[in-house]
Design a protein that fits this description.
CATH architecture of the largest domain: Orthogonal Bundle
Strand order of the largest sheet: 3-2-1-6-5-4
CATH topology of the largest domain: Hypothetical protein af1432
Structural class: alpha+beta
Number of strands: 6
Bound molecules: fe (ii) ion
Oligomer: single chain
C-alpha cells in the first residue's frame, strides 16, 4: 500500500490508536513503579486502583484480597461503590474452583449469574453499578479480585480494554501475592526466633542445672561453678564482648569443671592437701570435661576448649598440655582467672579465704605468668565500678558477701592495683621445644 492510499480517517484512527497505546504504556509503567515501591501496602493498592480506573475512564471499582483461612474476599480499596457496599464477601467451594479455572480474565457480572457468588451478592453489585469481576490468580493461586463499573463514556468494554484490564490487574495481583509472601516469611522468621529463644533458654537452664550438680559433688566449694560462670560473665562484659559472647563466657564458666564428675568424691573432698597420685587423678578433669562437652553442639563454640584449658598458664607451666600464652584459647584465659579468683576468695578445707588486698596483689604479681593483664584489669574494673556505684548491680557483693566488699581500704587498694596494671604489657613467652 502506498502512502497516498491512506485516507484522512485512517490516519486519524492510527494517531488515536497510537495515543491510546502511549497512554496505556504510561499507566502500566506507573503502576509497575507503584507496585515495586516499598511504601504502605494499602496506599499502593489504593493508588493502583485509581490508576486502573483512570486509564480506562471507569468511574467506580474496587480491589479485594483473598483470605484462604476465611474463604472470603476482603475489600482493600474502593471508589464510588457507595456507603452500603459490603467490605467482605464469602466464597463457596464452587466459586473458588470456577475462579481458578477462569484465571486472570474479566468475567462479565451480568453473564455469570450461574455462580453462587454472583447470585448471593447480585443486589450489591447491581446497586454499585459493577460490570466486570476479575479474579486475581497469580501462579495458579487466588490472591484477590478486582471489581469494575461501567466506562464513563457508556461504551462497552472492547477486547482491547479487557487486555489492559488484565495487564493492570496482574500488577495488582503480584503486589498482593508479594505482600502475602512477605507476611508468610515474617511469620516463619518470628516462629524461628521464638523457637531459638526457647531452645536457648532450655540450654542455659540445663547448663545452670548441670553447674549446680557439679557443685554438689564438692562439699567444700559449694557454688564454685556458678560463681566462676558469673565472674566470667562480668569479665567478658568488661572486655566489651557482645551479648552472645558474654553468654558464651558465662556458660564456659558454669561448665569448666564438668570433668570433676569422673573424679572420685574422696579426692575432691579431701580435707587435706592431696598427694601426687591424687593430684594426677584430679588433673584429668579438664580433659574429661572436654570429652564430655565436645560432642554437644553448643551455641557458643569455645565451651569445650574452655573446659580443656582452664588450668593452663601463660608461662607454659599449667596443665594438661603446658600451652603458652598465645596457644591458649582466650575464653580459657578468662575462665582461668575467674576460677583462680574464686579459689582465692572462698574458704577451702585447709585454707581460709584471703583478704581482698592480698588477692589483688597476688593477681597483679601473676600477670604475664599465669594471667593475661587485660583480663585481670577487666575483673578489677568490674569490681571497682561496683564499689564506686558506677555499676548499680551488686554482683560482687552477692558473690563475695557484703563484709568482704566493705573491708577497709578496699576501694583505694583496688584503684592502686588498676593503676599498676595499666603499666603491665602482655608478655609473650616462646616455647623452646
Ligand atoms: Fe578446674
Ligand atoms: Fe574450678
Amino acid at each position: 500500500m502506498r502512502i497516498q492510499d491512506f485516507k484522512t480517517a485512517d490516519v486519524k484512527r492510527l494517531a488515536e490508536e497510537r495515543n491510546r497505546l502511549v497512554h496505556t504504556f504510561g499507566a502500566l509503567a506507573e503502576l509497575g513503579q507503584e507496585v515495586s515501591n516499598k511504601q504502605n501496602f494499602q496506599d499502593t493498592i489504593r493508588t493502583s486502583l485509581h490508576l486502573l480506573l483512570g486509564s480506562l475512564g471507569i468511574m467506580r471499582g474496587g480491589v479485594a484480597r483473598y483470605s484462604q483461612f476465611g474463604h472470603e474476599l476482603n475489600m482493600l480499596a474502593l471508589r464510588g461503590l457507595g456507603e452500603t457496599f459490603p467490605l467482605s464477601f464469602s466464597l463457596c467451594y464452587e466459586d473458588e474452583r470456577q475462579f481458578l479455572l477462569n484465571g486472570l480474565y474479566p468475567i462479565e457480572i451480568d453473564h455469570a449469574k450461574v455462580l453462587p457468588f454472583f447470585q448471593v451478592y447480585d443486589q450489591s453489585f447491581e446497586k454499585a453499578g459493577l460490570k466486570q469481576f476479575i479474579p486475581l490468580i497469580i501462579r495458579e493461586e487466588s490472591v484477590g479480585a478486582v471489581f469494575l463499573g461501567a466506562k464513563a463514556s457508556g461504551e462497552a468494554y472492547s477486547s482491547y480494554d479487557r487486555e489492559i484490564v488484565c495487564a493492570m490487574a496482574r500488577h495488582i495481583g503480584v503486589a498482593i501475592s508479594q505482600r502475602n509472601m512477605m507476611a508468610e516469611l515474617e511469620r516463619h522468621a518470628n516462629e524461628n526466633r521464638k523457637l531459638y529463644e526457647n531452645l536457648r533458654m532450655t540450654y542455659n537452664d540445663t547448663v545452670k542445672a548441670f553447674a549446680a550438680a557439679i557443685d554438689k559433688k564438692d562439699k567444700y566449694t559449694e557454688g564454685h561453678s556458678v560463681r566462676v560462670g558469673k565472674y566470667s560473665e562480668i569479665i567478658a562484659e568488661e572486655l566489651g564482648w557482645n551479648e552472645h559472647e558474654v553468654e558464651g563466657a558465662a556458660v564456659a564458666g558454669y561448665l569448666h569443671d564438668v570433668g570433676k564428675i569422673a573424679v572420685e568424691r574422696k579426692i575432691i573432698n579431701a580435707p587435706y592437701r592431696i598427694n601426687a597420685k591424687e593430684s594426677a587423678e584430679l588433673n584429668k578433669h579438664p580433659g574429661v570435661g572436654y570429652e564430655i562437652l565436645s560432642p554437644i553442639e553448643h551455641p557458643y563454640a569455645d565451651v569445650p576448649l574452655a573446659a580443656k584449658y582452664h588450668h593452663e598458664r601463660l608461662d607454659g607451666r599449667g596443665y594438661p598440655d603446658g600451652l603458652y600464652d598465645r596457644e591458649i584459647p582466650y575464653i580459657a584465659k578468662v575462665v582461668n582467672l575467674a576460677d583462680s579468683f574464686d579459689a582465692m576468695t572462698t574458704d577451702r578445707p585447709y585454707k581460709r579465704r584471703r583478704p581482698a588486698a592480698d588477692v589483688f596483689d597476688d593477681l597483679q604479681r601473676n600477670c604475664g605468668k599465669q594471667f593475661a593483664p587485660e583480663i585481670v584489669h577487666a575483673l578489677f574494673r568490674g569490681m571497682y565500678n561496683e564499689l564506686t556505684g558506677e555499676n548499680k548491680d551488686k554482683r560482687f557483693r552477692r558473690l563475695l558477701g557484703r563484709e568482704y566488699m566493705e573491708a577497709e581500704g578496699i576501694g583505694p587498694t583496688l584503684k592502686n592495683a588498676l593503676n599498676g596494671l595499666g603499666s603491665i604489657k602482655p608478655i609473650t613467652l616462646m616455647s623452646l621445644d
